[in-house]
Design a protein that fits this description.
The protein is built from seven helices and no strands. The chain has 198 residues and is mainly α.
């Protein structure tokens, strides 16, 4: 159905808006968001004396590098989601196979989103740097919401689309048949003679 295709386009567009807005906020409010990365990597708000403090990163250069990677991934996601939404809109009336082939940008953006919000935030940040121990700089719940939204859109968009049903042709009223002309009867020779006599 066409409404299903529009739903996929709108969802991809919403994720594009989210990623691009987050990218803008991270750049516009650099200090606040950079502070988050600094505290997570330095592990300075985890449980005192925990056994994994050897993993802490205290180099400002590495903090900036990590924050730059996060921003780059968010920007790439936003651009890919936007390009995917535009591409799907362009082929919204195309056959199902062509519409399916146009989903590549959305799938790639979702892959990056899962890598960012699940692997980097949950695995690396949450477990390796023990972010779960921090009462102040713990973004696991937010990351969970983000990658679940990404997964939900990915699963929905990746469902195959059938060909759209062609609209039923409008039946035109058949033209009325003209009444057949009755052939004129030719006068016979006898009727001519009768007329001549009179």
């Amino acid at each position: 159905m066409l409404i299903t295709r529009y739903a996929k386009i709108v969802m991809a567009g919403c994720l594009a808006a989210f990623c691009l807005l987050v990218t803008f906020d991270n750049i516009a409010d650099w200090s606040s968001n950079y502070l988050y990365v600094q505290h997570v990597l330095s592990m300075d708000t985890t449980f005192p004396g925990n056994a994994v403090m050897y993993r802490a990163v205290t180099s400002p250069a590495l903090w900036k590098l990590a924050f730059g990677i996060i921003i780059a991934l968010q920007l790439t996601m936003g651009v890919l989601y936007l390009a995917g939404a535009i591409r799907l809109f362009q082929v919204r009336h195309a056959p199902g196979a062509e519409f399916d082939r146009a989903k590549g940008h959305v799938i790639a953006a979702s892959l990056i989103g899962f890598f960012l919000f699940f692997f980097l935030f949950m695995v690396v940040g949450g477990e390796w740097f023990a972010m779960w121990q921090s009462a102040t700089w713990n973004a696991q719940q937010a990351a969970f919401r983000f990658y679940m939204a990404v997964l939900g859109v990915l699963i929905f968009v990746n469902q195959r689309d059938a060909d759209l049903l062609a609209p039923a042709p409008t039946q035109r009223a058949a033209p009325k048949a003209k009444p057949a002309r009755t052939p004129r009867r030719r006068r016979t020779d006898k009727s001519r003679r009768h007329t001549d006599r009179n």
